[in-house]
User: What shape does this take?
Amino acid sequence: MQAKRHASFERAGPGVSELDVAEDPPWNGKVFASVVNEMNPNLDWYEVFDRLDDVQMLVIRRQSLITLIDALKTGLRDKPFPIAKLYTKWRCREAQLSLISSMLENPDVFCIADYPHRSVPTGTLKSTPDESDRLLASWCCVELTELLLTMAGEQNVQTAAIRLLHGALEKWPDVVLLALFQIPPPVTELRQKFIEMILPMFIHHHTNAVSVLNAIWNSEVRIMAATLLLGTTLLFAVLFCKFFIITAFVRSG
Assistant: This one.
């Protein structure tokens, strides 16, 4: 983690308040959690998760994530993983973003798409994404895009959050664009800027342009879509005219 301390473990007894997985050999998270549970069977592992909200709990290395996830899952036993806590606002945004970033890079270790989430409606796309692509799967979770968009407006994590969003936009612009329209109001200035940045090039160059715009226009967020897409610039008005002409041509054919 560069995780050198975990306050919640202190109550488990001496010798378990230090967790430095940067050491060689690495910690075995499953064994660690099993020992902690034996020493303190009443330890609340949901509280342990809450204590990840700490400046010293930065998950930087793949092995750190493996150790952490193994420990949490073993400690929780049959209790559900607290995925909702991942999306709440942490006091230490750096710790939160480091954990999310590590999860996105290592979906074989932990994939947020395996847990309850609001799904991006990719079934509406003409060319559907590869469902077996685990790197993509996480970006099909609306909560992820919503959280990163919020972080992109916060000074201390802005650069890193925008970098993650840009990386996804380069690979899966159709999925991210759909996600941006699934996020409930209010429509922030930053979200509007992202849409303005993506849309012109997307409409001109992407095979899913028509199906994405059609899905947005006919979705529950139609009013918001009209506000964003028709009320921003003259360019969007021109692009939408082209979109409707293409759609009419396809339907008449």
